[in-house]
Amino acid sequence: MSAPRKIIHVDMDAFYASVEQRDDPSLRGRPVVVAWRGSRSVVCAASYEARTFGVRSAMPAVRAERLCPQAVFVPPDFTRYKAVSRQIREIFMRHTDLVEPLSLDEAYLDVTSTRTGLPTATATAEAIRAQIREETALTASAGVAPNKFLAKIASDWNKPDGQFVLRPHRIEQFLTPLPVGRLPGVGQVMERRLAELGVATVGDLRAIAAAELEQRFGRWGRRLHELSLGIDDHPVQPERPTMQISSEDTFAEDLPLDALAPDIARLAEKTWAGYQRELQSPHPRLARTVVLKLKTSDFRILTRSLTPPVMPDSAASLGALACELRSRVDLPAHTRYRLVGVGLSGFVDADTHAMQSGLFESETPPPM
């Protein structure tokens, strides 16, 4: 048996809203909602003062305004948030190379072995949180556990500006009373299916034999049983290969398909800029497929894709290909669309692609 891992999940507290309150003293202590105003806008983040009114991320902005009429709405500034996120990432890297970012405001760290020589994962988490507070004037919460999913649950336990350590001998006791919905991958649909079996808590789930869960839910049933016991062998992955780069936007008013060209061109420029950053990374990956995403006024989502023999070489050519994909949409002409997105997918490693291309190009055609 190998020694258990030591995993930290660090989660910034109300990150976007906290950055706004830090940079504008007049917002401190007030309910802040990071969102554009408008019927189609959603909440990017809410300060803890706003959360006491029930405002949450991903909530429609109009609902947030009804719940908290006195809220201060601030449009998001992702350039600033990304800059702060890079500061925080640098702090993580002082302690370990094994950092797996999940978003701008959270990450997993494997601190089984560290650069600093601190004696415990608990001490490492405390040092990281202290450095974040000192260098960014922001607070973070942390969970310390033997694996990733337990660390993520633990980081939410003493929020905000808190820390929770889940030691191996207390895992089953800790999990037993938790609602089964706290397990990763258990959404509302799975919660309802488990409720039909009389399962409301992780302890209830653990009482069902693994074979029965597997019979009912396939391989996911076996995974559910492992999670109920606190088992998760997924390692921290410092470099997640790029799978897709995309940009999308929701319109103020629903539009017909033939009116989308200007928005497609605008979003193609944003996607192309992201792709150029990927190509400048230490381990670049090349895209092979152009994707057009659409959402109709009745919330039906469509995607159309094309893998051309020659990939676009500019934002304009990407936009042109994405526009052409509209011809593959076979809905009635009167259909209106509330969202459009332009993406690149089908990524492959640049080195592998170059090697394969070289092999094909070096082949000598047979004599006629």
TrEMBL record:
Coiled coil: none
Catalytic activity annotation: DNA(n) + a 2'-deoxyribonucleoside 5'-triphosphate = DNA(n+1) + diphosphate
Entry-linked CDD domains: PolY_Pol_IV_kappa
Cofactor note: Binds 2 magnesium ions per subunit.
Record Pfam families: IMS, IMS_C, IMS_HHH_1
Locations listed in the record: Cytoplasm
Domain UmuC: 7-187
Subunit-level organization: Monomer.
NCBIfam families, per the entry: PRK02406.1
Protein name: DNA polymerase IV
